[in-house]
Amino acid sequence: MINAERLWSRLQLLSEIGKTESGGVTRLSFTKEERDAKNLVASFMKEAGLEVREDEVGNLIGRKEGLNPKASVVLTGSHVDSVFNGGNFDGPLGVLAAVEALQVMNDEGIETEHPIEVIAFTDEEGARFSFGMIGSRGIAGTLTQEELLNKDKQGISIAEAFVSSGLNPDEIAKAARKPGDVKAYVELHIEQGKVLEGQNLSTGIVSGLAGPLWLKFIFKGEVGHAGATPMPIRHDALTAAARVMLVIEEEASKTGTTVGTVGQVQVLPGGINIIPGHVEFTLDLRDIDENVRDGVEYQIRKAAAKICENQGIKLTIEDLQRVAPAPCSDLIKNAASEAFETLGLEVQFLPSGAGHDGMQLMDLCPMGMIFIRSKNGISHDPAEWSSKEDCRDGANVLYQTVLKLAVQKVNVTMK
Predict the structure, then answer these.
(1) How far apart are CA 23 and CA 286, in angstroms?
(2) What is the pLDDT of residues 359-399, one digit of tens each?
């Protein structure tokens, strides 16, 4: 069994890095805060007896060797970067619980046929560059040079951030794992919803992950004086954008499974007495069914084009990210189910509305996740909370699941 007090203590220590006044954390990728977080996690990995390294895209990796070093590796972990003023559990729990699981194995002399690696992936959230899952894309071999051109609000590209962190953007292909090198990937994460809480369960097994589609809407109208331009002849970019936002809410609500979120808005010139001539906003659109999600996208695009035509507004829609929904592997679900039974926990399957690094690994290896309960379903906020007991239960399920996937060596003493 894992050491719940040690896991909880490490979670609290990590929460101090990038801590905000409201009690949350801001740890954006390739910043001092993220670097400090990775350094702390690396120290925990070393305490756990793991071999520690970073790959060509900045993923922090701790390895426990298997009895057969050439066998395919079992991967587990999560991320330590955050959104702006995010919570203390989203990401860090999965990394630190995995470190704890391997530390217990080493402390108890448990050996496995397959090697096991804990990964703290680079930039899962995408908060800085509006482009996420950089580390897992690197592992999967799908990260491209073109994608490294994405820039943050200060105009710094991902490639430039790589260089400032001592990485060579020309070498990202070296981080990719070869087909057959990875046996499975399993991640422990907070639910970020209310399903487990509503059923009074501490843990659950993820059936599949909704695919996030990120779009940027750009509206170009005509700047004018707020007092001197009559309403009928205005080309107000903001009113057009507002109407499109209402369409997003309406269309996403129709399906019962789709969610649409406008998370960033920019209005220019931004004067109190100036009609906005330029507006940009982002859309995060998700569903566990790709056809349903893309159908909602079509309706939004169609309505937006009509609204802008009627108001004399030029509309441009840019694709920022398009990720297909990802079903979880039976291999992982079955191993996790056995772990639940071993621990005497009720098995509960549930979908993930949020995207995670495992989505990027679908074509590389079997992928799956374990969820723990989130208080009030709150996430990406300082109020994000999961109890010590739920963290313990989830970490124990992860421990047992990884052991089953890596094939524990059982020593039998003959009498």
Answers:
(1) 29
(2) 999 999 999 999 999 999 999 999 999 999 999 999 999 99
287-313, pLDDT tens digit by residue? 888 999 999 999 999 999 999 999 999
Residue 88: C-alpha distances to residues 23, 103, 161, 333, 348 (Å): 9, 22, 24, 26, 25
Per-position b or e across 146-161, b if 16+ CB within 10 A of its CB? ebbebbbeeeeebbbb
- Contact predicate 323/213, CB 8 Å: yes
What would you report as the CA-atom Rg of the chain, rounded to the nearest whole angstrom? 23
- pLDDT (tens digit per residue) in 144-191: 999 999 999 999 999 999 999 999 999 999 999 998 999 999 999 999
Give the span between the Cα atoms of 89 and 26, in whole angstroms: 13
Within 8 A by CB and 6+ apart from 268, the residues are 276, 277, 278, 279
Among all chains, which residue has been given the structure tokens 């070393």?
46
3-class DSSP string for the chain: CCCHHHHHHHHHHHHCCCECCCCCECCCCCCHHHHHHHHHHHHHHHHCCCEEEECCCCCEEEEECCCCCCCCEEEEEEECCCCCCECCCCCHHHHHHHHHHHHHHHHCCCCECCCEEEEEECCCCCCCCCCCCHHHHHHHCCCCCCHHHCECCCCCEHHHHHHHCCCCHHHHHHHCCCCCCEEEEEEEEECCCCHHHHCCCCEEEEEEECEEEEEEEEEECCCEECCCCCHHHCCCHHHHHHHHHHHHHHHHHHHCCCEEEEEEEEEECCCCCEECCEEEEEEEEEECCHHHHHHHHHHHHHHHHHHHHHHCCEEEEEEEEECCCEECCHHHHHHHHHHHHHHCCCCCEEEECCCCHHHHHCCCCCEEEEEECCHHHCCCCCCCCCCHHHHHHHHHHHHHHHHHHHCECCCCCCC
110-114, 227-231, 270-274, 288-292: which range is least confident on average?
A: 288-292
> CB of 84 within 8 A of CB of 31?
no
- pTM of the predicted protein model: 0.81
